[in-house]
Each structure stands twice: as C-alpha cells, then as structure tokens.
Design brief:
Layout: H1 2-46, H2 55-68, H3 86-89, H4 93-96, H5 99-112, E1 117-123, E2 129-138, E3 141-146, E4 151-152, H6 169-176, E5 191-192, H7 206-213, H8 217-220, H9 223-228, H10 230-260, H11 267-279
Helix pairs in contact: 1-5, 1-10
C-alpha cells in the first residue's frame, strides 16, 4: 500500500513539474507574442493618429483611415484568415467591412493610441448578437462609435451620444440619419459586453450567477481585449496555469515532507548550495 502511494505521488509530482515547466514556457512565448503585437500596433497608430490630439480627434482620425485609407488587399478565402489577429483585421478590406472584425480593428488602434475603448454587443430579445459597436471614453462619458459604418453617434446638434442616449428612438434616428439605409433593428434595447450564451448549454446560468455575485462584472474589466486578442488570452491563461501549478507543486511538496516522509529533489536548496559554493572563496590548505 505504501509503495502504491509513493508511486502515485511520484507520478503526480513529475506530471505537475512538467506541466509547470510548460506553463512557464507558455508565459514567455505569449509574452513575446503580445509584446511584438503591441509594438506593431503602436507603429501602425503612430502613422495615423497624432499623439497630441484630443480623444475625439483621435477617434475621427481612425474612422477616416478606415473609411478612406490606402488600397487594401482582397482576401480570397476568409476561412483561412484569423479574424482575431490585428495584422489581418487591419489590412483586409473584407474584414474591415464586417462589424465584428471592423470593431476589433478599431479597438486595437484605439488602445494603441492611448484611448480607453471597449466593444459593445447589440442583442436581439433572445440575446443573439445582431451588431457590434465600440464605446470610447470621451470626457468621462462612454460614447458610441460604429466602426462598421465609420461614424460617431451624434444628435442633430452634434452632441456625442452614449448607449443610454441611443435608447431614445428620436436620438437614434438623428444619429443614424447620415447613413443611408442604416438598419433600425440595430437599436440599444438589449446589449452586453460579454455574451455568455456562446458557451455550451447557454453558459449554465453563468450570467445570472455572476450578476448576483458581482453586479456590473461585465463592465469591471476590458473583456474585449481578453476575448478578441488571441495573444493576450494565451498570456492570461498561461499566467493563471503557472500560478495554479506552482500552488499544486507547493501542496505536493508539503505532503511529501510532512505526510509521506519520502525523499525528493529540493531544487531551491540545491540551487542555494550551488550558488554558495560557486561564489565562496575556496580555502587553501597549507
């Protein structure tokens, strides 16, 4: 029985160490991926948006680039293109014409231009996504921008509108009047920042549980960055996995030392001893 327990422990111990090593490698890989992507986006935004402009001017600069930028290549096969990779969403005309990927492109450029922005999903009564827009923080108000139609939402007096403003049918009509045939179903009666209905089994009531535990959870974090940028998602998951396996390794080490009383390789202790031996002055015997 004792041998079986020891065998089981050693299997768990080495599996945990291997998974921890894989998680650490993934953190460095995803960190480098995210860093290179941010460098790319900052270089891209520097060519479009001056640093000293106001938030409203910066948004207009991004929309102008999306509306009348340089010639963009046509994608022959959208299925072969990652629709969550900014290097594609910023450069293919088909992706800039679809609300989801156009909003992703806008959000990536907005963040690289030091704007605070997030996506907003417009939902049908049965909570299916019908359109995707962006919210940008301008003068402490979350202003609506529709990247697919390249417009700031304004009323007839030019005042920037929030999603609450746009729930008024009259203001919604004023904001969309400049766009021919703008779909009236793209209203703001139902919306979300995260649509948990995409999860299996309708998320198992996860939204109701989160709303009860932490009201306003969907606005507390920038979920769009986590859900729509693969490099950032992999980085966050890798960090969480690294923390989990480090804690699991600590628990297994305590169990081995205090309960099973079996010898194991103490990496930290050996590293300290090796460092002390390497940096200490050797004694010379006469």
């Amino acid at each position: 029985m004792q041998t079986t327990r020891h065998r089981f422990f050693r299997t768990a111990w080495w599996a945990t160490n291997l998974l921890l090593a894989a998680a650490v490698f993934s953190v460095f890989y995803a960190g480098g991926w995210e860093y290179s992507l941010r460098r790319y986006l900052h270089g891209f935004s520097d060519a479009i948006v001056p640093d000293d402009w106001t938030p409203e001017q910066k948004v207009n600069a991004i929309l102008t680039w999306m509306r009348s930028g340089p010639a963009r290549p046509a994608a022959t096969n959208l299925d072969g293109i990652s629709q969550r990779d900014p290097e594609y969403t910023l450069n293919y005309q088909e992706l800039l014409a679809v609300c989801g990927t156009a909003t992703n492109a806008f959000l990536n450029l907005a963040r690289a231009s030091d704007l605070t922005a997030r996506r907003l999903l417009l939902l049908t009564p049965d909570r299916q996504t019908k359109h995707v827009v962006a919210e940008v923080l301008v003068n402490k108000r979350w202003i609506i921008v529709d990247p697919a139609y390249r417009i700031f939402m304004r009323d007839s007096l030019g005042r920037l509108l929030t999603r609450k403003d746009l729930q008024d049918p009259a203001l919604f009509a004023q904001a969309t009047s400049a766009v021919p045939n703008y779909p009236s179903i793209y209203n703001y009666d139902n919306f979300a920042h995260v649509r948990l209905a995409r999860l299996p089994l309708q998320g198992l009531g996860l939204r109701r549980a989160l709303d009860w535990i932490y009201p306003g959870w969907d606005e507390a974090l920038d979920w769009s960055l986590l859900l729509e940028r693969r490099s950032f998602f992999v980085l966050v998951v890798s960090v969480l996995a690294c923390i989990f396996f480090m804690l699991l390794r600590f628990i297994l080490a305590w169990f081995a030392d205090r309960r099973l009383m079996i010898p194991r390789f103490h990496l930290r202790r050996h590293a300290v001893r090796a460092g002390a031996a390497f940096f200490s002055t050797p004694e010379i015997k006469e």
